[in-house]
């Protein structure tokens, strides 16, 4: 018998437990009390007299309605069937069709496959053929589906508020434009967001500009990329776009760039980046070496998903990043970087980073954030050149946008002209400048001086109400278009449905207002796009020369072959790097694009509003985000509040006044561990006044203090408390794990070292575990996890090994006080170990918390939005949540804070605690190991949720699903029940997809292939962190993952035998660094 | 002490003691009978349709295959209700002026669907898939009855969960060779059991076909998520 030791857990420093929020770390008695309430979620409704009265009124009303609705005692209500008159050819009723199309935001188009059931788009998936998607999809793209069915969308074309016809409006506008011909001082201006569509760009440049030679086309959107553009120009002398190949990059330095979630191409980057981060054993049993794995250094102010997964993260003011970049560049031999010293506290970081990057010449990447000043972008180009990365991991090419330019300058000029009264007609397409224009530009006043104001948009928004004409814009799933991906690859966008509200494409608007167009010129968007591409099809774009065949093929694939923009290998000229001007000391503010509502254009999207933001876990609001130190210095506080019911989501935040120059805004404060000191992050997109019922009056308008001179960063601002408080809804305190160290994590070196010992004696743990029980017990716990290498398959408990059992000695009968509860004592019958056993593995090394899985789950499973008030009561309905944990002794020590993400869907326990307590057997096991949830049996006792250790069950406290709005009915997945009030629900591993694949396979009389069933979260995940499959198939990918020594079951010590398991987060820190994160 | 209750109360008490449970049992029994009756389930109840379409005429007399109209029955969960175009394929030539077909012609002309009343309404939460039943050798007749004899279409079975489960627990009783799935005339006795030389009984044949078509075991077929999602 092998000698074992009692010490299973590697020595761990005190105080590094995982925590989700500051109040948990502080651990006050009040907090403890709140935590331990058994069912805290439903108390306020009864404590609050108004809502109690409302509740009774509602209950009465629903009884009356129930009486009215139940005139028939029949189990099924009679339905009508409306068949087609002439059925479309490819359609089989009851089966989905997928169409390749593209979603454009910020001028960058990413390919999607839209799933259509009976002509209604119901779900979006990534397009594997599209370079910007690679089969994955981000949260905003996924949620764009809801925009199509937004009941607040514009339904009419308006002329000064009165409905008018689209063609009438075009004719009137055309006449008005004609009258202006030859009248100097009465100019025409076109204002759009960044246009990436070649066909629309072609129409504007080739036809509109020719018809009106003095007209000017201005592009402006708040999330512009002027700095990146200017930075490229400084060193290349011309406009460039840059893309990165992270499959080849092993050392990455990010200068305030959140390239995994918030950059053109980030979905693709996230997929590529994780290819080299995979710590699966290589060549059978070897831990990948430090040189085989990539290593990420991040310098940033706000904690971002990219920073959270970094191997080394250095928080610093965004304004100081330039000094840091110059110091690194100097180390890399870029003389033009000057002799700027590294910012305080960062000096000892420079040399190890430089050394590491230089060891990976041609296999590294330096990437600068879009909001960093042009100098940093120029430095990044120069550094990549010095490292020989250009052409291997970094590619420069001519811009994918139709007309690249400095948007801020253009916009300022436009407003100047408008103020001067020289603009007679302003046509705005897809923009909302009244809301988004910088605070120093009074766009509203300027707009007043324009004689004819035309707005095209999907909503009657802040700008539309001030215009003479509002034209109803079609959603991208309703009309034809095209676009270019982050690397310039062109794709065609086709509609899936006729415009629901009679919207039109911008192509129709532009084509319709050009006077004297030849009659043969196409006016329909499909023909315009087709005509453009007939002329501009890439020379080698397809195997045949027949345009129609090529067009058909490109429509099917979603991508036009060989249409990426030409790359150029030109090296940057470091002479263009400007001299350094040191930023002032003091408090800075950073304006950033919101991770959910973007620049505000998605403010009316309930899925995005309720999506917890990746780091802060805030929903329905933005906030002034500061570090704990800064908050202390300013006397600001955020408290988790309970009104006696112990709600989890209620955060009472102090309201502060932010003064930038002469502009002021009041907003709630959010204290963010890991944020740089003396720095504020303030996201765009909130404080909308006219956007619809969902987004109206949510959050705080950061445009009110953003100036055009300092659009991203401003040093020297004031933050003062006001004494007021505001309630924020954050899900960070929900469903907590009470210090059980849910995330196992370690470093690569630690993994390699312990693995050798682990092989000799399996009871030696690889990483720190909790609770810290004796080693043999952990061995046993790990063996209960389905699919793990040493999975316990027999019926009788294994022989226990104990430290007091001397080697060679007979095992004693009496073990004294020994906890034998794990295997033998279970009232739950053993699960079927034969046949199909569905299981999931989630790689915590890869997950960066982007939330794509959460939105994908909402779309697939008809998950309702509950609203801010209900979120503050802990009643959000997401079936999968992404937990975010911090680790570190001192929350004020931002540099040593470690962040982890852990997506938690239902764990599909083999011995499910929920099942044994259900009095009506509404949750039972299926033959293939799913923990089925039967909605029609559920009577709403909530015992199951009470008994679930993972807290993954969700209860419909109210009728959260919207049964009234017609458009939402079109959107729902017909394969999934829409749940009503009083019903428990949870993740089922997308059982509808499993059963569909099963039926397909059974019909063909073959087994289900590995990879045939893809859950919605897995399909969406940009990082490829989720794998799903059959444990019964020894070659399935999920089995391969679960055989990894890093595999573990969350709370497996409860003997739940979870089918969902996690691979420990393994990072690859640099031993030479001063503060090795994760070490 | 004077008697509180009159003697006649004895019989009343007896009636109450024995009668009440009987009444209760009776109402439970009555309730279940009513619940299972055609009044509630709609079994064998003819539904008024905008066009009095006769399966008896089209299937029984003319011998049109089910799949001529219900095209997606082998590939999809939904068997498919024919588009007006399918009706007009024939009725452009035959009975072109018939008054009965006015609704069909109108639909074709105005490009508006015929609003058929659904005959088989499944309860919510239940997801039925035609294609897998066809693939495993469950005949149309097993659920839909003798459609070839229905002048007007009705629901032949209760569609209660217990009715579904009866077959999911014991599929042998209803399996037939795949090539006979659409037949209304097929009987197991028409086939000979090669082992015994006698005509097949349904149970014998069912057993053979269950193995041949890989019909899964009752434990699998009665898992909740097989039908409810």
Provide an overview of this structure:
The complex is a heterodimer of chains A (1079) and B (229). With 1079 residues, chain A is an alpha/beta fold. Chain A has 31 helices and 42 strands. Among the domains of chain A are: 241-397, Dimethylsulfoxide Reductase, domain 2; 588-733, Barwin-like endoglucanases (Beta Barrel); 849-1010, Alpha-Beta Plaits (2-Layer Sandwich). Chain A is 26% helix and 19% strand. In chain A, strands 22, 23, 24, 25, 26, 27, 28, 29 and 30 form a nine-stranded mixed β-sheet that branches. The radius of gyration of chain A is 30 Å and the shape is globular. Chain A starts with 17 loop residues before the first strand and ends in a 12-residue tail after the last strand. Chain B has three domains: 8-36; 45-81 and 117-227, no CATH class; 84-115, no CATH class. Helices cover 44% and strands 1% of the residues of chain B. Chain B has helices at residues 8-36, 38-41, 55-61, 66-69, 84-91, 102-110, 130-135, 140-144, 161-169, 202-212, 218-221, 224-227, and one strand at residues 116-117. Classes of the chains: A alpha/beta (1079), B mainly alpha (229).
Give the key terms:
heterodimer, A: 1079 residues, alpha/beta, Dimethylsulfoxide Reductase, domain 2, Barwin-like endoglucanases, Alpha-Beta Plaits, 9-stranded mixed beta sheet, 7-stranded mixed beta sheet, 19% strand, globular, B: 229 residues, mainly alpha, 12 helices, extended
